[in-house]
Structures are given as C-alpha cells and as structure tokens.
Amino acid sequence: MQFNEEALKGEKLPITGFPKHPEGGFVLMNAMRDTGGLTIEMTVQPKDFSHWRVLLDTRNDLGSGLYIQTTGYRQLELNLCNTETCETWATDPGLLDVVRPHQVTFIVDNGPDIVLCAVDGQLCDGGTSRQFGWRHYSPFLGNVLTNKKKEMKILPEEMKSLKIYDRAMSVSEAVNNQL
Q: CATH no. for residue 42?
C-alpha cells in the first residue's frame, strides 16, 4: 500500500492488499509464520513529541492491530497488538525533531522474530540507550488484525508519505530507500 501527500490529507485511509480475516478486517501480519513480516515506511514531521500522540492506528475494538505513537524522548514507537498482548519497539532517542520531516522505517521480520528501525538513512543500533538496535518479539503474537472498517487513522498534518509492505524489507533496502 502506498499513499502520497494528496491521499494523506484525510484522517482515515483505506487498507487494501492484505489477506482477509474471517471475522472481518485484514490480517496485517501473522507472527506464527516462519517467513514474511511487515514493513512500514513513512515520512513524518511531528509537531511535538509529548507522550502517546498516535500518528497511525489500525486497531480494532478489541485492541488488535498496529499503531505508531510518540514517546516523549523524540522517538516514535511501533506497537503490534493482538487481543491479549502488545509488542513494542521505538527508534533510538533523540534522532527526531520537529524542525524538518524525517524518514522512518519499521521492519518486522517473522524469520528471526525481530523488529528494528531506521531513521533518515541510519539503522537504529541502540546508541547509548540500549544494547541492541533490535528486539525479539513473541512468535505467539499471532495475527495482527485491522479494524472491520478496513481503514487506518492518521494525523494528516504530520504524515507526509506512507508505504506499508506485506513483507520484511532488508535493512540495506530500507536505508537505501531513505537516501
């Protein structure tokens, strides 16, 4: 799925191109598969980084889905949720600011069950705040679904471009796309 700046002017966007779930909505990712995954590429310019400002949200009424929010430390955080648990990972602290747009890519890879990210052509390696630039997530996360309306909510004034892939992108591909 790809949305340009013109399409991002609304607060809700259609979700297409993912497998349908029998109870409605789409399956964004099945964490119990050994292959596949999900990649979210976006260009954003948050107006501020106060805690819990949601920039993108696909969750259903039971909380299953994904959302991206600010954390307060000039970071963006990806949250992958099913009805019972959430797995989260954030960009390295301090890489983002409100002065200019930033290219951010979150990669969720079902092979090794890891999530990682890149910002403005730089792989987030943990910096001084954590030992690694990636995190294992539980393979029992299961299906990450969308809402039954098959739409995502965004903050249109802060989201400049958005692409969602139904596969895990390689790190070199993600960084190259940002250059």
A: 2.60.120.200
Residue 142: C-alpha distances to residues 40, 73, 82, 151, 154 (Å):
19, 30, 7, 20, 24
Specify whether the CB–CB gap between 164 and 1 falls below 8 A: yes
Domain that holds residue 30: 2-178
Q: What is the pTM of this model?
A: 0.91
Model confidence over 1-23: pLDDT tens digits? 788 777 787 788 888 888 888 87
| Residue of 56, 40, 44 lying closest to 169 (CA atoms) | 40
Query: In the chain, which stretches have pLDDT less than 70?
Result: none
Number of domains in the chain: 1
The helix (H) or strand (E) run that includes residue 97 is none
Phi/psi for 9 (5° steps) reads -75, -20
